[in-house]
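Reopening this ticket.

The earlier resolution said the output was attached, but the attachment link was broken on my side. Pasting everything inline this time so it's all in one place.
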Amino acid sequence: MSRDVAETVRIDTMTAEDWPEVRAIFEAGIATGDATFETEAPTWEAWDTAHRTDCRLVARDAAGRVVGWTAISPYSGRRVYEGVVEESVYIAADARGRGIGTRLLEALIEAAEANGIWTIQAGIQIENEASMRLHEKVGFRRVGVRERIGRDPSGRWRDVVLLERRSAITGV
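Inline output:
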């Protein structure tokens, strides 16, 4: 995949038909040990239930292959937090470092603001420096470190950096 792939990717709304490719990218992220505490990808039905339907995006390369995805889930069921969400973004291993994550997150921010979201937050394992740089590049700021917040599958305690991006146009 060429360096300028970000310019040629197409950002689309994720559909159920994309799930096999989305799941494969998610599983590759799980395998790194630094992307999530999850140990296996859920079924489409479970994933679909847990994520908002209005902000699910995929990046497709020139051949139509899904090379990345992003989605949001509610932060809380309480009405006071209806404009606060948690974000996930995953890029296929052979497409990382080529600007696709930036394109996806920029599109997600636009879609989220169009749907009344005022705060997008992300929890990133402290070792995942590439993800933190990506998020900071598109306007997220570090709020703090949640020390020993979770254990990975080996039982090792892990720290998670909490980042957030506040909208300048929604909820102001």
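Reporter confirms the inline version is readable. The chain has one domain: 5-166. The two ends are 41 Å apart (CA to CA).
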